[in-house]
Amino acid sequence: MKKYLIFVIILFIMSGCTAKESINSNVKSVTDSNNAAKLEKENTELKELVKKLPNVTNEQLVETMNLSLKSINAMVEKDYAYLQSVVDSSITIDKTTNSFVYKDGFKQDFIKTINHKVFDYRFHSLNKDGRIIVGFAENNVEYEFKFKQINGKMLLISFLTN
After folding, report:
1. Which long-range contacts (CB under 8 A, 24 or more apart) does 70-73 make?
2. With 0-12 CB in 10 A as exposed, 13-18 as middle and 19+ as buried, what is 140?
3. What DSSP string runs through 24-85?
4. Phi (first) and psi of residue 108, to 5 degrees
5. pLDDT for 81-112, tens place per residue?
6. Cα 49 to Cα 13, 33, 64, distances in angstroms
7. pLDDT class for 50, splitting at 50, 70, 90?
8. Which of 23-37, 38-52, 93-107, 125-139 has the weakest average pLDDT?
9. pLDDT tens figures, 121-147
């Protein structure tokens, strides 16, 4: 009789676990399909967003990287002729203060020196309006160059640092 009772208890415990596991499995299944539906919707939205972004070519990415690095060197070397050749007409160069002056009057000082041991490339980014942003950092200082293709030529339209 004791064996029979132990057998019934074990069977009861096992059937209880199985039912509990079945419930958990069903809940997980519903949760997974809700997550899948959300991910599918998000994926569709992102695809639509990507379609609306302007195209950027590898050549433009390379060109903006090179323009950024050459501009940094030109700022350090005070090569005003080069800087003038790559900036948009909305930016003037103040040789007395070694800075860019924007139409709204904002002044951004040139980079004075670069420590190449801690100078890092951070990112390339593309805005909706076709502007390409290139980011660098040196220790805790960040540099951001914005370029826009104007009349078939990439021009610097903004340089900012923190």
Report:
1. 71/145, 71/156, 71/159, 72/111, 72/114, 72/136, 72/143
2. exposed
3. HHHHHHHHHHHHHHHHHHHHHHHHHHHHHSPP--HHHHHHHHHHHHHHHHHHHHT-HHHHHH
4. -125, 115
5. 999 999 999 999 999 999 999 999 999 999 99
6. 53, 24, 24
7. low
8. 23-37
9. 999 998 888 899 999 999 999 999 999
Residue 17 has pLDDT above 60, yes or no: no
β-bridge partners, 133: 125, 146
∠ CA 68-146-74, nearest 5°, is 30
In 3D, which of 101, 75, 81 has the Cα closest to residue 89? 101
Measured distance CA(129)–CA(138) in Å, rounded: 28
C-beta neighbour count of 18 within 10 angstroms: 10
Report d(CA 82, CA 105) in Å as an integer: 22
Identity of the amino acid at 129: D
Q: Does residue 27 carry a pLDDT above 60?
A: no
Please name which of 162, 161, 6, 153 lies closest in space to residue 72, comparing C-alpha atoms. Answer: 161
